[in-house]
Amino acid sequence: MKIELHSHTYYSHQTKVFFDGVNSPKDMVKAAAQKMDAIVISDHDTLQGYQQAKKYAKKYGIDVICGEEITSRDGHILAVGINEVIPPRLSAEETIDLIHEQGGIAISTHPFDIKQVGLREKAKLCDAIEVFNAQNLDRISNIRARNYVAKYKLAETAGSDAHSTAMLAHAFVEVSASDLDGILKAIKKNKAVLHTQYMPLNVIRDVAVRRLQLSYDYVTDYIEQNYWMPKRFIAKRMLSLVNHHPGKITNLFRVFTYLSLGGVITYSFFKALQDQLS
Predict the structure, then answer these.
(1) Quick one: which H or E segment has residue 66?
(2) Distance in angstroms (rounded) separating the CA atoms of residues 158 and 275
(3) Which of 54, 105, 207, 215 is paired with 251 by a 20 to 30 Å CA distance?
(4) Which structural domains are found in the chain, ordered by start?
(5) Is the pLDDT of residue 145 over 80?
(6) pLDDT band at 273, cuts 50/70/90?
(7) What is the rounded CA–CA span in Å between residue 169 and residue 186?
(8) 249-277 and 140-152 helices cross at what angle (nearest 10)?
(9) Hey, what long-range contacts does 213-220 have (CB within 8 A, 24 or more apart)?
(10) What is the Cα 136 distance to its own chain's centre?
(11) Would strands 75-80 and 63-72 be described as parallel, antiparallel, or unpaired?
């Protein structure tokens, strides 16, 4: 059974850029059904995406599993197999206890990501660790997660961290199970086979631009309220470029994307080095 463990719909939101996911629950389920046997809808701090997505499970012949990527005080925790929303901003310990009370399992997603929203050293509190996140193009974040799992002999998983239909099925797990209980047990016992492939750079770029397009008014308001001149003027001019994609402006976005990747790799390297020395 092939399972996409980590995916988001347009019910996932952020602070500065409102839309984190860009596709509807229906579209995510429909696209996943072409490659997967099951998908976990794991929006940030809400079950709204799952509640919509489960309506399409039978139509498209795929199991839709309830999940939530919870923003705990200590970092992101993926709950799989729950049935009620778990509030954010609790400690990792409190969050994991609530997941277990509902019969679910806790997975530490991207524990050493460069955004530093992962659990880092507290990841070992979870039932399993996401050692491969398809969006961690710096590679170092995933290497650190895998080394961490090897050190503590923990269960490991992989996820696409898909925020669009194009992002699905780049990293997933395969288990010998036919129901949710079997899936959860296989993951906890570290019997999941990991399938891993990094996300193409153009896919990540297109999703980043689409997020800004969908959140355009929201981001504009944020700039107006939080930026002073001349930063406000520059930010609004830069934001307006997304309205010309796809088109000639895409070549400029390609340059931005490669420059960003270089910066991400450099930052990740020095951050890992700093953590080792501290």
Answers:
(1) strand 63-72
(2) 24
(3) 215
(4) 2-200 (3.20.20.140), 202-277 (no CATH)
(5) yes
(6) confident
(7) 19
(8) 30
(9) 213/242, 213/243, 213/245, 214/10, 214/18, 214/19, 214/22, 215/17, 215/18, 215/19, 216/242, 216/243, 218/17, 218/18, 219/16, 219/17, 219/18
(10) 10
(11) antiparallel
Q: Which residue, among 18, 143, 120, has the nearest Cα to 72 in the 3D structure?
A: 120
105 touches 187 (CB < 8 A): yes
pLDDT score, position 190: 98
How far apart are the C-alpha atoms of 74 and 93, rounded to whole Å? 9
Which pair of tokens denotes residue 205?
């770029």
Residue with tokens 């990293």: 171
> Tokens 């993951």 belong to which residue?
187
Would you give the end-to-end CA distance of the chain in angstroms?
A: 42
Mean pLDDT of 188-198: 98
Do residues 150 and 142 touch, judged by C-beta distance below 8 A?
Answer: no
Contacts of 91 (CB under 8 A, 6+ apart): 72, 73, 74
pLDDT in tens, 27-67: 999 999 999 999 999 999 999 999 999 999 999 999 999 99
Please report, rounded to a whole number, the percentage of residues in the chain having pLDDT higher than 90: 95
Phi, psi of 86 (to 5 degrees): -110, 125
3-state helix, strand, coil in the chain (%, to 5): 45, 20, 35
- Say yes or no to pLDDT of 189 above 90: yes
DSSP, residue by residue, 133-169: ETT-TTSHHHHHHHHHHHHHT--EEEE--BSSGGGTT
